[in-house]
């Protein structure tokens, strides 16, 4: 019995080496004050695939995704150890600026959070802060990004109206467009559909499928069906640890850990 | 869905990369800007230091000429008398200030508190929506206008009502008008305190058959007492520092006697009187306004700190 | 035997309800008193002041003859002083608020600044006059100029603007700051392009209300030595000046009834200015109310 599991693990480890990793996480630990929120996290995130992070509330999945672009440091009492290597660079290296990292690693948040500006200005914000001022270039970027987020047709006639006039689902796709405008390498999505209705959720899910052609996507979701539908690989988090990490179909059809099985069959969480 | 134009894709990402040079420039901004804002914040501290320093140094000069003992024990204030006959006993000015303040609080506390209770416990949301802006308007009227009102309306009115009449400058009229000026402040601060009392406390008492009045007096008011008292103390501080109403309607005859119908002078009114005259720089009278200002500052500071202490120390935990 | 005597409860209920009724009546009366005073005050000022109100009254200089007196110098003096006060107090106030809300660490110094500001708000305005007299008029040698007056007024209303701006900045939700940081924006970029524009309506409302307080202030400028009788308009920030409230004080403190009448006319103008400023502030507040 023990031997078979070991064999499986070996196979998995071999499988993991198939892809080009965009992130390599090594022995990542994180504390909120005394609270040990992430424990010895160690796995690689593949390029141009969708990696889903699932687990019950409070398991550390949101905290984890926010370490990838160092947004977690906005909480003042956070302490971390270990390393996260993004494209051969340790993101905690003081020489590697946090602004530069976030230019490469974009983020879409739980609640749609457009700026209180026009739709155009929302999308143009990223290029602008990175020094692109040319109006023609900006126009192009805005259109391309809005098309990329599958919202262009809905907003092309009211680009200069306030973004707060959009519906929740449109706002979230606008936030995705805003993220695309600086052409990041990785897009982090922190429960992007938890505040949306089913139809908007579907649109965002379709969009994620489209986007993975060009971007590496990490998505946190509390919705297991969503993870099963859209992701290529899935990591199951529990109490700050990675219980299981493998390709999505294996994890859902043939989980190797009892706790994973309990979770995906709905025994807790 | 979208055919990504390769050349353009390169351009945005590479343009951002190219702009890295401008980032060193913005890195300088990141360091400089917080310092600029810190300077703004420090100016507010310098204002306080400036006030204290100014008052202290000039007051010190004043006490080199007039003994501090005389200043606080003499009950006569006649600075304009010829040198040897001049008296600098601030008690006369303090009495004027306290008289006006006392009258003001007699007016403002019951009316302000009653209005607060009405707004918080009885009035409908609609009524509140009408009355609160009107109170705000009252609070926004400049004191010069209140002073005009005191002199040209309240004083003649009192003259008719009070048997034996009232002199044109007196303590009563500005006292009442200062009180009117403070009503909105006490009403709105007390109402805030009462609004903070959770509804469950009211409902508990109402469910036992208590009347609205009993709820207000026995449940809400005791629960909000610290906030309500703090509003009184702030009102007192405001009354002590009030200048134009007492200058216009109070007169300029400092006295330690309490006589509501006769002319008085407050600390603030004295400072204005000297500023208006042609007192030369460096005279004892010139320095006296700082000594009076210092006394005034200490009075109001104590009141403000007391109000903060009360509302912090006795803050109710609901 | 019942612990509660229902009969006596019933009997007492009558008096308790009566007490409630009387109390409610008194509370309403107290509330109405304020409204009554406001009504009387406005009626008195209109009835005394309206007859003298004319275009000449606005464009004439002060005069020893009430029928020829006007507020032109005072009106322009007020505008000049505000032209100094508005930018200075806005920059200092908003700067302080941004520092306290965005940059300051939660330490003793920050707490000290915050307590200091709330105490400054309680200092009587006339004490600011003494400060201005010593520092600006004498120490910096500005004399009783528009500049000295404007700077003194700036310090007077600074605490109000700081507190209003802090409240406005606090209403900007954390989520949109995160969105900005998440795109690689620096702190200053986020403040300048996101937080400040979003908080601006609240900041403006607070600033206009604070300025309207400064427009009505008399005492500090009197202490500074602003002139009570001025027959010229300021030419630059180093000119001597008077302001509307000082002109009104001057007229009010004269014994002649006619001067009281034109004081009332001047008060009408002053109140109209304040009404306009407050309306603008309320308009901004309502227009941008609850955007987040």
TrEMBL record, chain A:
ABC transporter domain boundaries: 23-264
Positions in coiled-coil regions: none
Claim: Plastid is one of the keywords in the record: no
Pfam family, one: ABC_tran
Keywords: ATP-binding, Nucleotide-binding, Transport
MF annotations from Gene Ontology: ATP binding
Entry keyword Transport: yes
PANTHER family: ABC TRANSPORTER I FAMILY MEMBER 17
Record protein name field: Phosphate ABC transporter ATP-binding protein
Organism for this UniProt entry: Fictibacillus nanhaiensis
Automatic annotation (TrEMBL), chain C:
InterPro entries in alphabetical order: MetI-like, MetI-like_sf, Phosphate_PstA
Keyword terms: Cell membrane, Membrane, Transmembrane, Transmembrane helix, Transport
Superkingdom to which the source organism belongs: Bacteria
Listed PROSITE patterns: ABC_TM1 (PS50928)
A Pfam match: BPD_transp_1
Domain ABC transmembrane type-1: 75-280
Entry keyword Zinc: no
Membrane found in the keyword field: yes
Subcellular location: Cell membrane
SUPFAM superfamilies hit by this protein: MetI-like
Annotated transmembrane regions: 21-46, 71-100, 120-140, 146-164, 194-215, 259-284
Membrane topology recorded in Swiss-Prot or TrEMBL: Multi-pass membrane protein
Record family assignment: Belongs to the binding-protein-dependent transport system permease family. CysTW subfamily.
Protein name: Phosphate transport system permease protein PstA
